[in-house]
Amino acid sequence: MTAFRKVLIVFAHPALQRSRVNARLIRAVQDLPGVTVNDLYERYPDFLIDVPREQDLLQEHDVIVFQHPLYWYSSPALLKEWQDLVLEYGFAYGTGGTALAGKLAFSAISAGGGKDAYRREGLNYFALGELLTPFEQTCRLCGIHYLPPFATYATHRLKREADILPRAQAYARVIEAFAEDRVDIAALSGLDRLDVDLPLIKEASPHA
Q: Is residue 103 part of a domain?
């Protein structure tokens, strides 16, 4: 398999040892060609982020994936700290801050509530895409093309490996499609999610 795009997964889970879903999803993609998993809580347990290292990683990759559980309609604290420090003026935005312009990004989210909870008539009122607006606007400011999220809902119901495996396989296929440049980016306009059952993912070339 030849990777045409380098994918960086910025992974944030503060209690991975207790995770069922995110732990399984990250295992499904960590060895894929062209994919780098950057586990923030493993690398920075003291929250002392190596900003130059993180900026170099961002510049070396074409697609940025923010993978994390949805914590109080936002991200775990270390990912917010990462954003505050790494996406600095003059690098990611502002005068001369064009280092990330033209890259692609999307969020890979796990949520305890079911999909129906994320709508006006549901418990959480807002759609997932609305809750991720801060990520979208951050990317816009940095010149990054922010795509719809890959979402795994109702994680509290996914207790067995057999329940989680289909989502892990779907995630791996989506990440692999990005790495192989098989995603129809133009077809994503107006969609509310990424997944393998959408026509945006093209079949791999037999000559790849």
A: yes
* Extended strands (E) in 18-62: 35-39
Q: Is 81 inside a domain boundary? A: yes
- The CATH number of the domain holding residue 78 is 3.40.50.360
Please indicate, yes or no, if residue 90 is contained in any of the structural domains.
yes
List 39's β-bridge partners, or say none.
Answer: 11
The residue range of the domain holding 171 is: 7-188
pLDDT per residue, tens digit, the chain (208 aa), is: 455 899 999 999 998 888 889 999 999 999 999 999 999 999 999 999 999 999 999 999 999 999 999 999 999 999 999 999 999 999 999 999 999 999 999 999 999 899 999 999 999 999 999 999 999 999 999 999 999 999 999 888 888 878 889 999 999 999 999 999 999 898 888 888 888 776 666 766 544 4
Please tell me whether the overall predicted TM-score, pTM, comes out greater than 0.90 for this model: yes
125 in Cβ contact with 133 (< 8 Å): no
The H helix count followed by the E strand count for the chain is 7, 6
Count of domains forming the chain: 1
The CA distance from 103 to 125, in Å, is 31
d(CA 136, CA 72): 17
